[in-house]
What we know:
CATH superfamily of the largest domain: Uracil-DNA glycosylase-like domain
Largest sheet: 5 strands, mixed
CATH architecture of the largest domain: 3-Layer(aba) Sandwich
CATH class of the largest domain: Alpha Beta
Bound molecules: uracil
Distance between the termini: 64 Å
Amino acid sequence: MMSGRHHYRITLSGxxxxxxxxxxxxxxxxxxxxxxxxxxxxxxxxxxxxxxxxPPASLPTADAPQSxxxxxxxxxxxxxxxxxxxxxxxxRFDLAYRTLWRAQSVPGLHxxxxxxxxxxxxxxxxxxxxxxxxxxxxxxxxxIGESGDREQFVAWFEPDHHITAAVAPxxxxxFTGMDWLIVTPGASIAWDGKALAVGPGGRKEDVPQxxxxxxxxxxxxxxxxxxxRVNINAMKSEMPMKYWKNLPEAELIPALLEQAGTRxxxxxxxxxxxxxxxxxxxxxxAELPASLDQLYRMLERQPDAPMEKSSPTLVRGAxxxxxxxxxxxxxxxxxxxxxxxxxVGPAGQLLDRALAEAGIDRQQTFLTNAVKxxxxxxxxxxxxxETPNAGEIAYYRWWVEQEIRLVNPRLILxxxxxxxxxxxxxPVKIAxxxxxxxxxxxxxxxxxxxxxxxxxxxxxxxxRQVEYAKFVRDxxxxxxxxxx
Length: 484
Ligand code: URA
């Protein structure tokens, strides 16, 4: 256990090495090592001027499990830290560990907003949310060429914090149909229609600032994004040296080429390291989550969830791991959020009744939502539902597709406009398309119908009954399609 004489220096592999921080923090806690005895360093970061000549104590590794202290970390504290660790302030690793350490003896610590450490962590997390929001809104792509039927774009952006890798899935979801590269001082991210890649940062002057497409850029990026045609020597000869001298050639270009060339699972900053983006290229099946549990755990760890007005609780889908029928709603409501289960509140109870009338066994059906967290605005003690926006729907789309792949349903039933939009990628008029079999994701059949909460909002009894009967009919149609 801890001795006051020891000092532990933990070196993280980079500014965004949150996995490294988490592993070290867990081990430090297990060994009862107090924050005052730990310094957090980052490889490649200029020395902070403090010269420490004492040899660092190494972390004990092989203790018998029974001698390790149990570690308690609340999920929402971990989510808060996960976000705050992207802040640029070098004190963040220390602050986060100190808070975790203190939370071991004060379990609700992170719910005390007046605590100075919690206050600071919340401030960091808020700055990260703002920065992510700004990057979502203000990245401006310049078109630099075309390859086959795909257009290629590049953008320069200077975030305030270390958020670049964290926002990559957002840009992939929003700009799926084009190839793009976003260069920032700390990291670059790229999408080629198949895989997201993260490489080292670049410089502003490396990135064209107007839409005028220069032939050299066109050729260069055509090569970058078309792995089958990569030929570094040809590329170098086609690419004037004036560009090469400004590009961090030794880092950025080879990294991008390597990733494009092998269609790697995802952008490894260093071999053997945990992938910086919890996101997998669609075609590499081995890299995709193998179970729903793994999928939801991955989603829980995503640092860039649109949390501005949302509960931190991720509400997982419920039902058998494989089901013939999958029903997708909008987002969890107040009750669902409290119980961490989908469709358990008033709309869920109405759905239960209608399912039973349509002869559908809820226990055999997989129920989930297009958006996985409850978005609301507080009003006194109540939390009033807010409709998710297009960005929030897009954010969760890939995760919904993965649920579909894993559950492998014969038919998907979308309840309401949000689910229909998530599953088709565009706004859908429910009144016009209900009753039609539409093409859904992953080649599945899709039916759309109204959301049960719409039925609850109809003010007159008679209107409600008519709409309820139509809803049951849609469920019967779904049942008939599944049993065909
Ligand atoms: N509404 C939904 O769309 N989903 C739920 O889980 C509950 C209400």
